[in-house]
Amino acid sequence: MLFFSFFKTLTNQTVTIELKNDIRIRGILKSVDQYLNIKLDDIEVLDLAKYPHLSSVKNMFIRGSVVRYVMLPRSEVDVGLLEDATRREAANQAGKAR
Amino acid sequence: MERLSLNESPAPAPRTLQQNQQFSQNALGPAGPQPTGGPPQLPPQMFTTAAQLLDLTDKKLVLILRDGRKLIGVLRSWDQFANLVFQDTVERVYAGQLFADVSRGIFIVRGENVLLLGEVDLDREDDIPPTLTRAPFEEVFELKKKEDAKRKTGDKKRYDELQALGFEPEHSGEILF
C-alpha cells in the first residue's frame, strides 16, 4: 500500500502518464485507488494527431494495469522520505515472511 | 455505495497509518478531525475504484479496450473491478485518415479488457479533427484490415529481433495497441 499512499500525496499535481500502448497523457491527478487506477482531469494528449479519438476527452479514468510510467513533478517528491518508507516496508515484509 | 472502504484501514492499520503520517505534509489520509492540524483531509472513500467511476456514471464516455477498439456510449453500471455496462454504444473505427461509426447496442465489458475511459466533452465532441473524414464502414474496415495485417508483421519482426537479443517483449501474450 506504500505507493498508493504515495500517489495520494500527489493528488492535484500535474503528472504525465505513459500507457503500455505508448499513449502519453498529461493531466491533473484527481484520484487513485488501491489498484493504482488513476483519474486525470483537464487532460492533454501528447501526439494527439495519432490518437484522434481522444480529441474531445476532458478527463479520464485509466486502469492501473495498463500504465507503463507515471512522470511526476520533481519538486513534489521527497526521495529521501520515499527511500526510507520503501526500506521500512521491505523490512516489514521480510519480517512477516519469516 | 454505502459500504465503501479501503482495505488499508482495518487489518494492517498501525503500519499504514504511520505511513500516511509520514507522507502527510499534504497527505489525504483518514477523514475526520486531524490532531496534527494539517490541511483538510479528504475521506478515504475518495480513493476507491467505485468513487472514481461514480461520477462517470450516466455520462457519455469513450472506452478504449485492450485490443484497440474504441467504443462510445453511456456508462450505466460498473463494479470494483471496472467491469462495465455501456448503453447505446457506437464503435468508432479509424483507418488512415478515415473513420466510421457502427451501432453496437449494449456492452458488458470485463474489467481486464479496459484500457481507459474518457469523458467526452459534449461541447467539443463534434469538432472532428480536420484531417479526418467520415467514410462508409466497409471502406474503413477494409483499410483497417490491411493496416492491422501490416502492423502485425512489423510487430512480429520486432519481437523476434528483441527475443534474439534476450529481451522478452513487453506485453507478450496480450494484444495491446
SSE pattern of chain A, N- to C-terminal: HEEEEEH
How much helix, percentage-wise, in residues of chain A? 25-40%
- Oligomeric organization of the protein chains: heterodimer
Radius of gyration of chain A using CA atoms only: 15 Å
User: Strand share of the residues of chain B?
Assistant: 25-35%
Count, helices of chain A: 2
Helix % of chain B is 10-25%
N- to C-terminal distance of chain B? 34 Å
Discrete helix count of chain B? 3
Shape field of chain A: elongated
Say what the CATH topology of chain A is. Answer: SH3 type barrels
Strand segment tally of chain B:
6
On the 0-100 scale, what is the average pLDDT of chain A?
A: 91
- Give the uncertain stretches of chain B in residue-range form: 4-34
Give the spatial strand order of the biggest sheet of chain B.
Answer: 5-1-2-3-4-6
The CATH class of chain A turns out to be: Mainly Beta
Q: Strand sequence of the main sheet of chain A, in spatial order?
A: 4-3-2-1-5
Give your account of this protein's structure.
The complex is a heterodimer of chains A (98) and B (177). Chain A is an alpha+beta fold. Chain A has one domain: SH3 type barrels. Helices cover 28% and strands 36% of the residues of chain A. Chain B is of the alpha+beta class and 177 residues long. In chain B, 25% of the residues lie in helices and 27% in strands. Chain B contains 3 helices and 6 strands, in the order ααββββββα. Chain B has a 6-stranded mixed sheet with strand order 5-1-2-3-4-6. Mean pLDDT of chain B is 77; it is low at 4-34. At the A-B interface, helix 1, strand 4 and helix 2 of A face helix 1, helix 2 and strand 5 of B. Strand 4 of chain A pairs antiparallel with strand 5 of chain B.
